[in-house]
Amino acid sequence: MQAWRVHENGEPGTVMRLEEVDRPVPGDGQVLLRVRAANINFPDALLCRGEYQVRPPLPFTPGVEICGETEDGRRVIANPALPYGGFAEYVVADEATLLDAPDSLDDAEAAALHIGYQTGWFGLHRRAHLQAGETLLVHAAAGGVGSAAVQLGKAAGATVIGVVGGPEKVDVARELGCDLVIDRRSENVIGAVKEATGGRGADVVYDPVGGEAFTQSTKCVAFEGRIIVVGFASGTIPAPALNHALVKNYSILGLHWGLYNAKDPAAVAACHAELTRLAAEGAIKPLISERVPLKDAADAVQRVADGRSTGRVAVVPEGASR
User: Fold this and answer.
1) Among 145, 186, 211, 297, fewest CB within 10 Å belongs to which?
2) Do 63 and 316 touch, CB atoms closer than 8 A?
3) What is the DSSP letter of 126?
4) At what angle do helices 167-176 and 144-155 cross, to 10 degrees?
């Protein structure tokens, strides 16, 4: 089979190599899956760079989320068992963690429903307890993680303010359902949020960016607001001023979704059932901006790493997608 492999750490476009390799052999409790579509996540770039919290032995294949097919024809969503990641024709995955792919979504959309939407749902509902009528501020609202949070926020009845970088992403965020979109490159984020909320600020802030975005969040979060720290796509991990959180009376909530797989798998399954319901109703639908063939995966991962993509980019092996 064909698979992209990383033999040394570095930028995805440089270190990913398309090779002919043997199909992986499932271990105890694992199954072999044919990849129908693999969604590109920012952690795939971090894996290539050797900067992710999980560091598989070299060489490895990146790709942390797929829509695949079992040998008996079941269409599933899975997190491949590294080092045999999803940018390949076949993967292995733990059988107990497989989730049924929603019939309402095609393969690329189903592949993108998992990590980003699970993270958004747990962040907004389990950690921040977002309520209907509250204001949700989403950084990188046109990106893969942010776009999921925007849709989930609207489905929960919140007013959603999206922050993006560049006019082309403003249109994408509006189409996703943002009530207000702020272009951080040409507008004052803090002033715009305060103006839109009558000076109150945002009740919940969803931050997959870190760096300056986090600093802005602390200056425009409401009384008893909640800032959900999801990731650090900017490359800068902020050092929160806890005296500021005390004086302004807001909460900083960390979210590592992967821990729920180990500590509360039943909650992951329940969340998937809810996401499947919302997808069937049309309340959420992953925005797939590109579907690229397997041969173009390295360039696509690099674009995601560089922040040059919107929504989700899916890798679709030739002849795999329905």
Assistant:
1) 186
2) no
3) I
4) 30
